[in-house]
Amino acid sequence: MGEPRIVDIELDEATILWRNADIEQERRIAIFDLIEDNTFKPVRASAAGHTGPYKIKLAVHDGRLALAIADKDGDALETLILGLARFRRPIREYFAICESYYQAIRKATATEIETIDMARRGVHNEAAELLLEKLEGKIETDFATARRLFTLICVLHIRG
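Given the sequence above, the corresponding structure tokens read:
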């Protein structure tokens, strides 16, 4: 019996135009945390008898997120396409607050860093809730998985 979870995740390198050390660290942590603990059950694949685990590849094409889902052997199951228009503002806000956070950890007081980090978590949490809404009826997942997926969606939107 399979597990309804992600065991491998890949980002389309052609989509990522630029990244710095801070963003690369965010990407590594999000992928590591996602692989370690996630819930991921594609509704159509599950209805067709696939129980997981899954490999996924994330890419952005024409303002849409392409979520290619494969079984553990890499055989394609489906590609889910999600419009990202509703994510433009949260992505911009997340980038802005992250930039403030990265600057703050280099020179701000602990209280200032904590305040910025709280704001960053708030934006991140709101975006994860939005992603859960967009995935409803398509993929059954949990808040922590949606949160990490949002981080990776942001990495795909970096424009240097």
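The chain has one domain: 6-156. Try to locate this feature in the token string yourself.
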